[in-house]
Design goal:
Elements (H helix, E strand, L loop, with lengths): L1 H7 L4 H28 L5 H17 L7 E3 L4 H11 L1 H20 L11 H23 L12 H10 L6 H20 L5 H15 L26 H4 L1 H25 L9 H16 L6 E3 L1 H9 L5 H22 L4 H14 L3 H6 L5 H16 L2 H32 L1
Antiparallel strand pairs: 1-2
Length: about 425
């Protein structure tokens, strides 16, 4: 199926090189992030990487968006951490499986189509908010700060704590990240087809080695393949597991579908025909496989997906390449990749976040309809102050309030005319 589509698009060596470059950078970003997410959930760190390795073939073959890269997300942490605390690895497995089944149910009922009805201004606000989240979340690593953050804290809280500790900044980390960001921006502007983030990371590694800087690196990469998770269903799971799994499935579904649309917008795909139900089904099947190992749920990750696009990724091959690089890294490339500075990868994510900030929309705000401007601002603010799902609901609610007001006005008007 993939080969037929590639032939139809006249797939060539340049496109293949772009897919490999995009998959490579996406994998580099996934390594430390996956390890961290699994640890926050109380799971073995390797499971955070295993999520991407195991689910990528399913999402690449069955998913709708060819450049959407999935993996473990911070969205899953509150749900899985509680399950691990109460039932261990088996609890995480059960919650992930219930969430996967929930995604499949949404797909079969064709509920995903409603994601395509989200107004454009809400999408722009969501994109801006996600970009701000990506930038703020990486500031601590860019500045080399050794402070712990509550995974459930809002981005505004994270920003405040980071700025309070800015006096402890490590200038080597900052310089390394700035090299990546500036070089990536320059390459993307003057050589748009070049793998900008990859070149930025290579430059940062070269400078770090040249001056023998001591900077926090990715570190040791576990190489063991996780076994199947052992668990048994009990009547108590109706209360302890089922609600958490359904809630996780709902939250993950909304994040997945909106992120997929943001990635489409970023790569210039303005098509209004979006098979969101297919995306949900693909990730539902993929997460059933992840759940058998107790691995975190996989959803679309903006940083990896956008880095994939920026480096030239155009097809499903990039998703498979990202999983293959992770597999090779775990098995053979650990000693080499372990020396990549974390601040270099943080620089890539921060640069991608700035690219998502919808600067054109900010400039057009005074000329926009009031309802569109309000929806944009409400959505963007809610993403960084509360949650992505609540942000989309709040942005759409702005249009709902306007519709109700319009209905009330048009209903009252004829009565007023008659009274005259």
């Amino acid at each position: 199926m993939i080969l037929k589509r590639l032939r139809a698009r006249r797939y060539n060596g340049t496109a293949f090189a772009g897919d490999l470059g995009g998959g490579l950078v996406a994998a580099l970003i996934a390594l430390p992030y996956g390890l961290a997410i699994a640890s926050l959930c109380g799971l073995p760190p390797m499971l955070g990487i295993f999520t991407s390795i195991l689910t990528a073939p399913f999402t690449a073959l069955l998913g709708r968006n060819p450049v959407l890269i999935g993996g473990a997300s911070s969205v899953t942490v509150p749900f899985l951490a509680v399950a691990v605390q109460s039932q261990g690895l088996g609890g995480a497995a059960k919650v992930t499986i219930v969430a996967a089944i929930t995604m499949l149910v949404f797909s079969v009922l064709r509920l995903g189509r409603y994601a395509a009805m989200v107004p454009g201004s809400v999408m722009a606000g969501f994109s801006c908010g996600i970009g701000a989240m990506m930038f703020i979340s990486q500031l601590r690593t860019i500045l080399g700060l050794k402070i712990k953050m509550d995974p459930e804290a809002s981005m505004l809280t994270v920003l405040a704590r980071t700025l309070d500790a800015a006096g402890q900044m490590q200038w080597r980390s900052l310089v390394t990240a700035l090299v990546v960001m500036l070089l990536s921006a320059m390459v993307a502007r003057y050589w748009p087809k070049a793998p900008a983030p990859l070149l930025g990371i290579a430059a940062a590694v070269a400078i770090s080695n040249l001056f023998h800087w001591t900077i926090l690196e990715i570190g040791t990469i576990p190489s063991s393949v996780p076994p199947f998770a052992g668990f048994a269903w009990t009547p108590k799971d109706v209360i302890s597991v089922l609600p958490a799994g359904i809630a996780l499935g709902f939250v993950s579904s909304v994040n997945l579908l909106v992120t997929s649309r943001v990635v489409d917008h970023f790569r210039g795909d303005r098509s209004k025909k979006i098979d969101a139900d297919r995306e949900l089904g693909a990730y539902g099947i993929a997460n059933l496989a992840a759940g058998m190992f107790g691995a975190p749920l996989s959803i679309g990750i903006p940083a990896r997906s956008l880095a994939n696009v920026r480096c030239g990724g155009t097809s499903r091959i990039s998703n498979l390449a990202h999983a293959l690089v992770l597999l090779l890294a775990v098995q053979y490339l650990g000693p080499v990749l372990s020396h990549i500075p974390l601040s270099a990868l943080a620089g890539v994510t921060a640069w991608m976040g700035l690219s998502l900030m919808s600067w054109g929309t900010w400039a057009r705000l005074p000329k926009m309809r009031r309802v569109d401007a309000a929806a944009f601002l409400v959505t963007a603010f809610m993403v960084v102050s509360w949650s992505a799902v609540a942000a989309v609901v709040a942005g759409c609610a702005v249009f709902g309030v306007r519709w109700l007001w319009h209905q009330r006005f048009t209903a009252v008007q004829p009565v007023t005319e008659l009274s005259r």
